[in-house]
Amino acid sequence: MAIGRVVRAIAGFYYVESLEEDRQPVECSIRGKLKLGSESLLVGDKVEYTDDERVITAILPRQTVLKRPYIANIDCIVLVFAHQNPDPSDILVTKFLVLASTSGIPYLLIFNKSDLVSKSKVQKLADSYRSYGYQVICTSVLTHLGKRTLKQALNGKVAAFAGPSGVGKSALVNMIAPGLMLKTGLISEKIGRGKHTTREVQLLKAGAGTYIADTPGFSQIELDGISPEELAEHFPDFHKYNGKCRFNTCIHLSEPGCQVKKAVDDGQLDRLRYQSYIELLQEIKKIWDNRYR
Ligand SMILES: Nc1nc2c(ncn2[C@@H]2O[C@H](COP(=O)(O)OP(=O)(O)OP(=O)(O)O)[C@@H](O)[C@H]2O)c(=O)[nH]1
Ligand SMILES: [Zn+2]
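Above: inputs. Below: predicted complex with zinc ion.
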């Protein structure tokens, strides 16, 4: 019995890469008796398989499931933005950060294209997001700034990249794992999954035990699953005010005795950060009110 990871699925066949030996993936089928329940076997799943018959006999417990793309056991979401071209908007960055947080999967934030702006601008943006409690890496595909740090952060992990179009997701993957995707780059769901294609997400091997999903995460950036009451949980820098407001239902909007608002007025919490929170909160409230109230 061998242990491996499903790196690709095509028409009922699963390509399983050994977790014990450095070998090419083998094409396996699923043992008929294997009970999958309501969930099917996903790319990213760790499985037991018989090497000689090439049959998957068991699925090991899943740590995480990412919905878009549908993939199991991702252990790092790499959120990519650019310092310029396209300019990073705080609201969009915050939206992706909240989405990553709701997935329950560890994530980190990259500001790429550091070569396009001054060093002080690079530092300032990174520092502000670090002060909100995020892990930030500034990179440049041109100068290779941040290359080692990013490689180290992804070492031994199964990662999915996410972020708006044109920020350099494919370029970054090519920088840390040259030749992996040749010219094609990451395949966005919109382009790669037309009506006539049934292409599944695939894991690309970027080093021993290190994989990168070939499809960017969060193809739709909608916050529709999050309630207004829950939003603040996804702001790490708000955590220390948990349970401190006068009302335990406080969503830090305009309630009296709100400690989050007080922290903003006292200069303890960044006002811009709070504004991003309020903007997302209003958006979520609108969705929520339309649907449930
Ligand atoms: N100056 C500069 N340009 C970069 C850098 N990284 C990527 N680019 C350029 O930015 C453009 C977009 O890069 P991609 O890697 O295709 O971006 P992407 O995020 O994969 O884009 P989508 O496929 O649309 O999601 C390309 O022209 C790259 O050459 C960088 O660090 N500095
Ligand atoms: Zn409050």
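Residues 67 and 255 are 35 Å apart (CA to CA).
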